[in-house]
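User: quick one - fold this with PAZ bound?
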Amino acid sequence: MKLYVDAGNTRLKWCLEEAGTTVANGAGVLDEENPFPGLAGYASGIRGIAVSTVASEEKRERLLGYLAVLSKVPARCYWSEPERGGLQNAYSDYDRMGADRWHGMYGAWLDHKQGFVVVDAGSAVTVDFVNQCGRHLGGYILPGLQMMFRSLKTDAARIGFDPEQVLETGPGKSTGECVNHGLAWLSDAMIARIRWDAQAFGLADVLVTGGDADRLIRLGLTGIHRPDLVLAGLRAIADEETS
Ligand SMILES: Nc1ncnc2c1ncn2[C@@H]1O[C@H](COP(=O)(O)OP(=O)(O)O)[C@@H](O)[C@H]1O
Ligand SMILES: CC(C)(COP(=O)(O)O)[C@@H](O)C(=O)NCCC(=O)O
Ligand SMILES: [K+]
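Assistant: Sure. Structure tokens for the protein plus PAZ:
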């Protein structure tokens, strides 16, 4: 079995595969005592470990330390690349791009050769455009929902509210409504821009991933929900490298 790990800034997602079939998968938090609940029982059967991470070096080392205790098989980290299988990175400093973005785009490229937009709504929101030639046209990085709640809480002295995920976008009549509706309104505007840009670039497929994907879809983002997109790209790359 091979273990694939997508370690973001908030959560880590993993899946265990055997001959193209998912044996188990799960999610956890790196700072917790057991970041991989549900995995330990499979440890002796692990024959390869591939990691995609955007966490700090300190957290990456903690993750590798945990994996070294779990299994004797060394873990290999996979990073952003200039090109793979016809997909071309728009960054000239390609190694500055978050590994999750590259792996998400590659996961999308595998079955959307007609071009696509990837929206990854995680700790940060990233939007990336890839055309039918496999050319990454570039993208955007925006603060994620929790990040925006946190910055309003900590950087403004007199904004007291309970963060709530709402779909209402009408003008608020209390601090709580102004903040919660405000962030839904902002996401709504982002969704309209994604739709507009996708059309301008001639891209029909919008693939949505990340912990807040559902929220964006409920707010009206028309797209294909692919919770596993980063892991799918990582899996394909790791398998190409080791076959
Ligand atoms: N069980 C959960 N734990 C933490 N965040 C969650 C959970 N379910 C949904 N979320 C939302 O998902 C976001 C994190 O998304 P995720 O894709 O896991 O992030 P990252 O890849 O940056 O670690 C959080 O900001 C939160 O709003
Ligand atoms: C933009 C990100 C913070 C998103 O990370 P996530 O929300 O998935 O934790 C990550 O892809 C990252 O650290 N990128 C490096 C900068 C870049 O992609 O240009
Ligand atoms: K993200």
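One thing worth noting: The chain has a mean pLDDT of 97.
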